[in-house]
Design a protein that fits this description.
Helices cover 35% and strands 19% of the residues. It contains nine helices and 13 strands.
Length: 289
């Protein structure tokens, strides 16, 4: 087992890459405060090496994400474009609406907070109670600071018995909010699958969202990106997705796996990755230049 390389700054490997695919939560902010050194690192990369596209499993659209950036103070000059899982989920809902035909509205139960409604606002969808739904859109838990996925087990058992498909607009299991780990839609979807339910996922680690992101890198740069670097703090999404696409990955250790990892050493990192069945080219405690 070879030990993981631990970098002191992105500048050590920046010349090896011509574009960046960067996670948002856990890298660029923690949900409440911006990581300004990370923003500066991305800004330097844009200036000296190539484009940066943010790839987020946020179950919402880009304008809503940008509004959150403004509220918490994330600079908007450190990236060229944003791709979200919420965008992919909305496109799927549009396609499902077309399948229903003119005058036929899809009856959908939305499991998640009100702030995520932009995913389906304006579409031919009636947001109904679960008992009347034809499909479920999961963008998270209703009260993610106090509930757990198990709080939905009885309801999910009923949904599975009725054969309802769940659309998961955020495959993340947990995310940082301040110093707390918060359950995401992916944790509810995982429970639903364990109960035998059918889930359609949008976002990392699934290949379709990387195809969109790589195309976005090409469009903003005007050229094909041949040596992209994926940056993220989640093994099950950021690293697994990058590995599946054959994209080199940089792991940010002081994210959702910080407590599990302990001291950031090459040996600890290698053991953690071997256990999870993922790999990264290098790691950093936090993203800095």
């Amino acid at each position: 087992m070879s030990e993981m390389r631990v970098l002191s700054g992105l500048s050590e490997i920046s010349a090896d890459h011509d574009g960046i695919i960067c996670d948002v939560w856990g890298v660029l902010h923690n949900g409440r405060e911006p990581h300004l050194k990370a923003a500066e690192a991305l800004r330097r990369f844009r200036r000296e090496c190539g484009p940066v596209v943010l790839l987020s499993n946020a179950p919402r659209l880009v304008p809503t994400l940008l509004k959150h950036f403004e509220i918490i103070g994330v600079p908007t000059d450190c990236f060229d474009a944003i791709v979200t899982s919420g965008m992919a989920a909305r496109n799927d809902l549009i396609a499902r609406g077309r399948e229903h035909g003119m005058g036929r509205r899809l009856k959908m139960f939305h499991l998640g907070p009100e702030r995520d409604r932009d995913v389906f606002d304006g579409l031919a969808i009636d947001c109904v109670a679960a008992d009347d739904a034809e499909i479920i859109l999961c963008t998270g838990l209703f009260d993610d600071e106090h509930e757990t996925p198990e709080d939905y087990e009885a309801q999910a058992t009923d949904w599975q018995a009725r054969g309802l498909t769940m659309l998961c607009a955020n495959p993340d299991l947990v995310v940082q909010r301040g110093g707390q780990l918060i359950y995401c839609a992916g944790a509810v979807a995982a429970l639903y699958e364990r109960l035998g339910g059918t889930v359609v996922y949008f976002g990392k680690p699934h290949p379709a969202v990387y195809d969109v992101t790589l195309d976005s890198l090409r469009r903003v740069s005007g050229r094909t990106i041949t040596r992209p670097l994926a940056i993220g703090d989640a093994m099950a999404t950021d690293l697994k997705g990058a590995n599946a696409m054959g994209v080199e990955a940089l792991f940010i250790a002081h994210g959702i796996h910080a407590a599990e990892l302990g001291e950031v050493t090459g040996e600890n990192l290698s053991q953690l990755f071997d256990k999870a069945g993922v790999r990264a080219s290098a790691a950093m405690r936090e993203l800095v230049w």
